[in-house]
Amino acid sequence: MSHQTTRTFACTALTLGLLALAPDAHAGNGKIAIKAGRVITMNGPDIVNGVITIEDGKITGVSADAKAAWDAEVLDHPELVAFPGWVEAHSNRGMDRPNENVPVAPFLDVRDSIDPISFYFEDSLRAGVLTINVQQGNACVIGGQGMVVKPFGLTIEQMLVKQGSGLKLVAGARPGRSRATQSQELRKAFIDLRQYLEKLVQDKKDGKDYARREALFQGKDLEKEENKNGRALDSKATWKVPGLEMIPRGEIDDQKEPLLRLVEGKLPAFFYCDSGSSVSLALDVARTNGFLANTVLVLEGDSWKAADVIAEAGVPVVLSPNLTWVERDPLTGKETETFVPKVFQDKKVRFALQSQNPSAQSLWFQAAQCVANGLDRKAAMEAATRTPAEILRLGKRVGSFEAGRDGNVVLMSGDPLSVTSTVQYVVLAGNLVYDRSKDVRMKHLMNGVEPNNTSPGGAFVDGSSHPCNDPPKSDEKAKTDKGEKTPEEKPHDDHDGHKDEPKKD
Amino acid sequence: MRLPPRGTTAPWTRWMLVLLCAPLAAAQGSAPTETKPEAPTTLFLRGEKVIVRPGRVLENAAVLVTNGKITAVGTDLVKPDGARELSAKVLCAGFIDPWSALGISGDALRDAGTAPSTRAVDAADAFADEHVRREALRAGVTSVRVQAGTTARVSGVGALLRVAPGLPMEAMVIEADAALGMSIGLSANASNQGPTFEVVDGQVIQRDRGSRGMDPFDRIADVDRVTSTIEGGRNYLVSKNEYRHELEEWQKKIAEKETELDKEFKKAKKDREKEEKDAKEKGKKFEEKKYKEDKKPQPPRFDEDSEALAQVANGDLPLTVQVHRFAELHGLLAGTEKQDRLRLVLVGASESIPLATRLVERQIPVILAPALNGRGAPDELEAADLSLPARLSRAGVTVFLGSGGVDPAATRDLPLLVQMAIGNGFDRDQAFDALTLGAARLFDAEDRVGSIERGKDADLLLLDGEPLSSAGRVQYVISAGRIVVTPEG
After folding, report:
1. How far apart are CA A22 and CA B442, in angstroms?
2. Shortest CA gap B335–chain A (Å)
3. What is the pLDDT of residues B318-332, one digit of tens each?
4. Would you kindly state where each structural domain of chain B is located, as residue ranges?
């Protein structure tokens, strides 16, 4: 663990009192070996008594007999299960004032909205979600660019996994608009781009023609100018802008440029659809403007009804957090339930799951629901690990264990899909960033341990008036206040059925 | 609106008739062979009576449907191998509701923020109102013209859509640009009745109708708004054309200038060299000669709303205006008199009887939704009783009937409404034409739907009696070549 990160941890603990982190004994050479009773690789069969070795933030080996370097720090937990961590393909949480107002804002970047100290990230870490694509603007037309982060760090730079993960587009009607007017605005954004580019080219041409005539008139030899700076429009769109090679890309308005990158397939699209009919619109806009191959549909409502169209288009989807669709027949009053992931599995559409909330109904819960509703375990697990990683084009970095991937490991007390399992340790990029036995909030919530210096004005010092505090025995309380360990603090004895989050909402 | 006069047959129809009598084996062979995964099957439909088009009937004939299209119609067709055979007493084209609220999402229907370029096809919802769609199909209505923002002053471009639920987009849309819609003097835009309440998902939502009632001045303003909007489209068209001419002229001038400049370049170069030398000798700074030329004309600012309106002004797109009261009808007719290319279609037209002659003169068709109005219905609908279609049509006006564009479920009752209009004196043949080929023609879709003719989309009904009679029940409905209704359900 580097010096800087250690300091960061100190900051975290001091300023926020969120997590007590990083065991004291650290080699500090960036080498760590994790031994677990079972290693779920998400990349072939599980390994019994496996070892994951990490160096400089990257995995160097995963096997039953991998040798840890002599100077590596070793996390030896034969009673725990190692797992690559969940991947959230789309989230509109963890932001301070996300853009939901400026309707067409391809130039906005969510990095300006992400709030590193949001509880969302803390909760995600505790639930073993290690990679999160934060996207804003479900109530816009073009909401801005997203960013993939890990749920740890005090600055965006520390959290960064990948910038420019994709542009959010919205096919469903935003408040105050109907499907018709929303579509109109969406299509107009691309018509505007095209006309803007055409005008740039035309003005350039006119300018050159004028310069040539002027030179002829003045008897000047015009030096030959090469179109060296520009680049032709490279897009599968149904429209073309001939002559764009004349325009150096630097001359293109920054506000328009992300949309151009989208059209050229250099920026993925996260297309938010709120219903089956908005899926056709999204696919049509993507096709017309040449970015169908880079489109991911983020589905809500009855969008699953368009599964056939989606399968034909061959685009992956991020499913609504609500996995079961209930519909009442208006004539018979009969209710029918549809389990949405099954629909997409049957149609062979690649799908990723989305958390319902960051804690109790996080990705593990969604995957477990899939198993409960008849999907096979592998498909369910992949929908929250490998598939979202691939959707985010991070398949070579996260979502499974293999040499060369990011050194992210979750150590769990049991099977990741079990309701009684809890995340005990999290290693992110080779750094131990979470230890449940030192999780201040966990201690507070589960055992009533009041962390030092966290009660403003000492209001809850005696613990009696805190609304969510189990009234602790007075002698126990006294002990904890002195910072002594309570007996229940052994992490993996925690099979009390609480999972890890008492604050369900 | 220029409809070909009734009774004449277009050349292609005559060719059709020849074809009908000829053996059609060749037609089967040349049927399109491309197969899509969910391609509709080949259908062989027999009828004791096939109403090919209004006024043209074949006895004991058959219709071949391949890949969603009608590929042959005739009395001596042979059923191809593998085709599914259905038979019925009567075969006729599916009905078209030219003024419907079915098939478009409710929020778009009520949207008050629509503009001329808002397209109903963008709000087409193949998954909504499934049970209502099925009932409409069972009643024989296979396609509808819908409009976003029905009560907005400018509703945008309406679309002709298929009713059958769950169709892929390309099968659902028959004509994406059917007509541009506007409205004048609707009580929905007024508010002397206070707010309205609507139940959405079990929750009561209050909708304010605005602060003021729709008084005569508002209505005059409405008329003026419609006429000036169209005028705006026309001006845009004119300025576009002017720009084109100006540009051509400028280009010509510049081309001439260029040849001239090219010719004189050597001289210009010599002059320049001399001047440069002179300047150097005199120790002065050399100054370039100022070049002047005519400024390039600038195109009118692109505006998608004006683009749509220009199409209307040019007659490329029909204009449907929902207007009911005499004063507004009169104002609209007066205000659009000089728009000679405009294809105006009046929708509603409750009090249009006194204007019938002018409608005939200007060949303006009307779409009516007559009903027995109970108490509380908006006053503008009072004159739209069941005899209105008959009276207007007897005066020579081309009359269409629609379900009123408010309630999606009303589309189911359109055939019933038409039967009631027939009972009140509306000519049966005209009624059938209005529901089929006439409506298709109204929205430039006569090459796709409206009759059972070779090359058209297979949208047809198999009935056990005459259409538009109480004895004629719909047995099967074929929509885009798919069997969407069977006697079982």
Report:
1. 76
2. 29
3. 999 999 889 899 999
4. 11-94+450-489, 96-189+307-447
